[in-house]
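Quarterly update from the structural biology core.
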Amino acid sequence: MQNKDLDIDARVKNAVLGLPLLKPDEQNRCLGTFYERIELKITFSEAMRYDWTVILEKVIKKKRNYQLLFNGRLDMDVLGQYIRLANRCAKPFAIKNSQHYHQDAESAAIILCADYALNREEIDIMKRYLQY
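Predicted structure, tokenized:
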């Protein structure tokens, strides 16, 4: 009888608060995905300073199962060019709007990720492509 009570309590708690997230801090920093799934990350300062569409297009064409995640607080002009890139390359994308996602200069603005672990040592686009 006590197991059923615990199960009912858990169901009520999940209904009220929502399902518990695995690594919620990491998901908030990574626009809802996990660090190990990220191929490249572009911060707000990097997105506002440089046009990364050429590099992203080269990387996207290497693998078929990537998707782009955009922070909804990104400037609409910048966001538009990356949405056009996703459409041109026929890649799925999502615009993530949450109060938990940060908007400071070093926060993630654009993330190229997969639906499985990639385990890249370096995901920051500026560090991987120094020549830019």
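The mean pLDDT is 86.
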